């Protein structure tokens, strides 16, 4: 790849008029084919330790790289390059196939109808759009994983995404001008869209990032600053569409059915890049100067707003819907393991825009940091990002193993963020605005917009502000969830009773389990240190407790206890629980606080197919509070041959016992079915009562249980080396007493019969004791 890249860098501008012909081939050689057959330069797996890393970064640099210079040169000559619609995001492709205009202007007026028919529809992109499409699509193209991979945030692709975001969406200054220019003095912007196009989306916000008139003015009369801003808008639209727009509202509602297959499943690498995008968009939007932050129309009616300023102000609304559906899908479909941390941090990054402020937009710590009042409008206009996703996370948390330190850390992170002073109050106020009745809303709305000097009042002005806020919150919720959505309050009694309080109980249970495992490990460690003087200590403590993982031993358990303690404290702060209420919740656990009760069965119900776990039982097993005893549930005679058994004798005795059971099975069933003493004595010899009792306390079907209770003769114990040794010693002892083999055998059978007789006679008394 090294020589290939060097040749591309040297010869890229020597081809003259043929540049536009080799451009698609060059893009495919760099980013790979859209179907994943051609790997390209493997930017996702190229790291700084590679020799080609610096060459690639220089070649694709947005400021001085040869590739971007080629893009600008072709852009000035207004070439077009086609992409099959099959590679467009699912909702966009569905809109085009149904003859509906996609909500994103990026795909407007670009559909190409081939002569062969409608089966191979294409989208015609300009060179810059074509380049950015392939660059963005490179992230989601299925590729063969390489054997040696470092962290994905160290890859050339991740660094390039960060570089492009900083270059085209600068937090300081303006977007640098392009190096090539056309006859009008600037790289030509895309062709103007038709003014008759409707930009209706699922919400009330226009998908256009700039003001409406900027999109529809001919580029020859446009402001030069507006001509340059289209590259930034195109980059953001392309990233959002390719990385996030895989789920529409209708598609997501269909995905709730288990019969519907997922159209797209993001990877952890994908989510990490999305988080990078979210963090930079916050920094980009927050880079507005204080005098530019006001979003009211009156504040800008008499002042000139530059396209870049308007762009920064519109970014959060443009990303909101697609990111919400993307995160909601991840929350509902991501595995219940530690890899969910990438999704979690992406969500927490979006709902905390105040962390990405300042001159360098460095993230600020969220601990003990009061959320400023100026962010109240952001919280209200993104209410579902806080309330709905918080509820979905709680539902995940109650099904997660919180004894694991990594899972406990995620619960702590969420509780810590939502416990920030002033945030819960903002969310609660947003919920109150959404639940404002419609008739009250109309009653409050003033008839006119008179100022106090014209006969109006300051109260009417305040009512108008409240009415606008109610309208924004309702539009946000209905836009993301649909007009028929059933909103559940984050601080309502339903959520508190169904999820929040059980989660607090589960956290308390997990703390107790972690403490029990930690104490057991400490005891084993103490025993090991004592026995090590005699060379009898255990060599590995990781397996000292049943079911313990490496993350659940030693220091990890201390971290678990710390994370859960602080999470419990923050959750009580969020839901306004005092220490007395917390102690009452923990005391309601009852017998679960007793270590001895860990031997009880998990909560379950009896059915025709055996025991079925309830939701509570599943949580008890996940958090190690209760468990089923593991028993072999198949035919006892067909168990694998143990190391302490003679394989030849096991097979021989199985054939003998099978013949006897097959021939006399009916007689044994009839004998064991008798209610008298003879029936009890037969059941003692021909059934295993202890094993049957254990199997009743395991998740086993009724058919399997009945099969295990059938009377049968089992000679397999005679194949045990221990039994053989005991019999040998018995016969040797009999020979010492001058007893022959026959006499010893009769004595042995008589002793066995007498033992069974006594056990049958005194069985009831033994059970009572």
TrEMBL record:
Molecular function GO terms recorded: sphingomyelin phosphodiesterase D activity
GO biological process, one term: sphingomyelin catabolic process
Biased composition (Low complexity): 294-306
Domain of life: Eukaryota
Topological type in the membrane: Single-pass membrane protein
Keywords, in A-Z order: Membrane, Transmembrane, Transmembrane helix
Compartment annotation: Membrane
CC terms in the record's Gene Ontology section: membrane
Any Pfam family hit: mit_SMPDase
InterPro entries: Sphingomy_SMPD4 (IPR024129)
PANTHER family attached to this UniProt entry: SPHINGOMYELIN PHOSPHODIESTERASE 4
Protein name: Sphingomyelin phosphodiesterase 4
Organism the protein comes from: Oreochromis niloticus (Nile tilapia)
């Amino acid at each position: 790849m090294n020589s290939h890249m060097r040749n591309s860098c040297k010869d890229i501008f020597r081809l003259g008029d043929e540049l536009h012909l080799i451009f698609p081939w060059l893009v495919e050689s760099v980013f790979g084919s859209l179907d994943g057959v051609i790997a390209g330069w493997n930017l996702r797996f190229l790291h700084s330790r590679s020799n080609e890393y610096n060459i690639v970064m220089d070649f694709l640099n947005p400021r001085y790289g040869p590739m971007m210079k080629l893009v600008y040169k072709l852009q000035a000559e207004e070439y077009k390059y086609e992409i099959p619609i099959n590679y467009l995001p699912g909702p966009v492709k569905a809109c085009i196939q149904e003859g509906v205009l996609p909500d994103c202007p990026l795909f407007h007026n670009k559909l190409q109808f081939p002569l062969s028919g409608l089966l191979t529809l294409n989208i015609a992109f300009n060179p810059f759009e074509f380049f950015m499409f392939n660059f963005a699509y490179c992230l989601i193209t299925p590729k063969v994983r390489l054997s040696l991979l470092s962290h994905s945030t160290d890859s050339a692709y991740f660094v390039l995404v960060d570089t492009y975001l900083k270059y085209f969406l600068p937090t300081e200054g303006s977007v640098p001008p392009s190096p090539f220019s056309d006859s009008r003095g600037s790289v030509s912007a895309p062709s103007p869209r038709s003014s008759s196009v409707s930009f209706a989306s699922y919400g009330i916000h226009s998908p256009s990032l700039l003001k409406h008139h900027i999109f529809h003015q001919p580029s020859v009369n446009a402001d030069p600053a507006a001509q340059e801003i289209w590259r930034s808008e195109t980059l953001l639209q392309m990233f959002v569409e390719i990385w996030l727009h895989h789920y529409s509202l209708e598609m997501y509602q269909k995905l709730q059915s288990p019969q519907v297959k997922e159209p797209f499943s993001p990877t952890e690498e994908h989510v990490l890049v999305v988080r990078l995008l979210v963090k930079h968009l916050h920094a980009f939007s927050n880079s507005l100067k204080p005098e530019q932050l006001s979003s009211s129309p009156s504040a800008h009616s008499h002042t000139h707003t530059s396209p870049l300023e308007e762009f920064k102000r519109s970014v959060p609304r443009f990303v909101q819907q697609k990111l919400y559906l993307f995160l909601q899908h991840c929350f509902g479909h991501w595995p219940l393991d530690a890899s969910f941390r990438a999704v979690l941090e992406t969500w927490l990054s979006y709902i905390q825009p105040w962390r990405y402020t300042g001159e360098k937009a460095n993230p600020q710590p969220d601990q003990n940091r009061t959320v400023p009042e100026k962010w109240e409008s952001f919280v209200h206009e993104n209410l579902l990002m806080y309330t709905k996703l918080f509820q979905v996370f709680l539902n995940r948390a109650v099904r997660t193993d919180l004894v694991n330190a990594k899972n406990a850390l995620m619960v702590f992170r969420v509780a810590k963020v939502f416990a920030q002073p002033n945030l819960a109050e903002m969310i609660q106020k947003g919920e109150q605005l959404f639940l404002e009745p419609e008739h009250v809303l109309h009653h409050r709305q003033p008839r006119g917009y008179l100022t106090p000097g014209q006969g109006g009042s300051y109260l009417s002005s305040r009512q108008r502000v409240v009415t606008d806020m109610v309208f924004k919150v309702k539009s946000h919720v209905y836009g993301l969830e649909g007009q028929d959505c059933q909103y559940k309050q984050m601080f309502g009694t339903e959520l508190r009773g169904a999820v929040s309080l059980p989660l607090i109980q589960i956290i308390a249970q997990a703390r107790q389990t972690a403490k029990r495992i930690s104490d057991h490990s400490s005891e084993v460690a103490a025993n090991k240190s004592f026995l090590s003087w005699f060379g009898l200590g255990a060599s590995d403590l990781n397996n000292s407790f049943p079911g313990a993982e490496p993350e659940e031993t030693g220091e990890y358990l201390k971290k678990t206890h710390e994370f859960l303690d602080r999470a419990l404290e923050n959750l009580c702060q969020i839901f306004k629980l005092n220490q007395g209420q917390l102690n009452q919740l923990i005391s309601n656990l009852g017998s679960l606080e007793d270590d001895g009760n860990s031997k009880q069965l998990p909560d379950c119900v009896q059915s025709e197919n055996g025991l079925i776990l309830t939701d509570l039982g599943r949580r008890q097993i996940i958090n190690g509070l209760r468990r089923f005893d593991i028993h072999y549930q198949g035919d006892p005679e067909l168990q694998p041959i143990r190391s302490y058994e003679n394989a030849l004798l096991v097979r021989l005795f199985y054939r003998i016992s099978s013949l006897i059971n097959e021939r006399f099975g009916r007689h044994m069933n009839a004998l064991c079915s008798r209610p008298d003493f003879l029936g009890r004595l037969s059941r003692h010899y021909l059934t295993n009562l202890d094993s049957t009792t254990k199997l009743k306390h395991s998740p086993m079907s009724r058919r399997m249980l009945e099969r295990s209770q059938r009377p049968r003769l089992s000679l397999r114990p005679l194949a045990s080396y221990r039994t053989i040794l005991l019999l040998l010693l018995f016969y040797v002892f009999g020979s010492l007493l001058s007893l022959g083999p026959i006499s010893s055998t009769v004595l042995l059978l008589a002793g066995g019969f007498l033992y069974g007789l006594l056990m049958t006679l005194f069985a009831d008394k033994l059970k009572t004791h």
